[in-house]
Amino acid sequence: MRLIKRILTTAEALRSLSGIPGQDIQMASRKDAVQAAVPADSLAARYVHIRNATVDLCKHLEPEDYVVQSMPDVSPTKWHLAHVTWFFERFVLREYSKKYNWFDEDLDYVLNSYFYTIGGMYARPNRGLLTRPTVKEVMAYREHVDSAMLDLIAEKSGDKDFDFLIEVGLSHEQQHQELILTDIKHVFSVNPAWPTVNPELTPPPDRESPPHEFRDGPSGIQEIGHKDDSYCFDNELPRHPELIAEHQIGSRLINNGEYLDFIRDDAYSDPKLWHSDGWAIINREGWSRPLYWAEGLDAEFTLGGKRELDLQAPVTHVSYYEAYAYAKWAGARLPSEAEWELAADEEKISGNLQESNYWQPIAATGSQLFGDVWEWTSSAYLPYPGFVPLPGALGESNAKFMSNQMSVRGGSCVTATDHMRTSVRSFFYPHQRWQFLGIRLAKDSR
Ligand SMILES: [Fe+2]
Predict the structure, then answer these.
(1) pTM attached to this predicted model
(2) Ligand 1 centroid to 87 CA: how many Å?
């Protein structure tokens, strides 16, 4: 009862949160009050922490920044902020709360991303055309839903299905935290001044990467997939055996200096290194370097603005085609996702993740298996044997994307630390490179 009372206090406190850009200081102190009002290890605390973290990522943005869509893969920041909120409204409040009042039913169509089983949706490439709802209205929407959600969590927490659904919503929000940063990076990159998204990032360390080595990985019949009863996405299951050939895997990620050698060896002009589709796209699009490198190959655009190219830091914003061509040029190959997972299985989950506050890859001190960049694997993104999608509309989250995409592993410098698991699989089309995507090598032992 006391716990419920404390959480209700939190709901009351959240009702007074303004969340409007430009009011960061007042907001921070009110958020502290909210966080102090709930038990640290409760579901409510986790909800408040992750929801606040999302808004905090945007604290240096101005209202104009929230609206722009610089390409079809990018969504405006305000759309992300509203869509993750809609997820709780549509899949939790609508299912579990009898007294919930919809904020604005017209938002249902605009904020549905790809859940065809529940209805239609506004065209993704046109999200940047919507000036309404305004940023202020989106923040008010977040408050409205947060208030109702905290009341509901106080009432229902402990119900296994309910708690699982909240975890789905929070994991979904963390995925969009990453997208908010990678999308705004693209938005700012099209401005020739290369403005700074966040002036408070930690400057990258000035250090040498350790030498790149190949290390033996486990072989024979090995198990991969999520291990225990803790939360995971449906695509991480079931844990299952795979037959792994003798192989070696790179001791760290490939860095900018090594990728520069590849460019200077005229690799972008050598058709022998490229898949047919890769050769077609680099010629059609005129690609000759990673997405955010300056033409002079001496600087790159980062979330901290324009920075001198750090030759020791992992190369990032490369497509699968570029990763494949680099590996071929280097006399190696990309690891399969099973090889990657077996290497990662021996490591603690730590690295240069979102909370490290670099928001760009940095020179290695260890294996870099977690954080820095999502690592392209040679594996197509497919269901594991015996895969069962989540029931209902949420089953659309993963299963229907299992065609023509590649699995990427390990998270990036903008992935929330508690979002990472060894078994997490993400996926992108081979030509995509606006995410933090990079390269680890592997090779056959024989
Ligand atoms: Fe989403």
Answers:
(1) 0.92
(2) 8
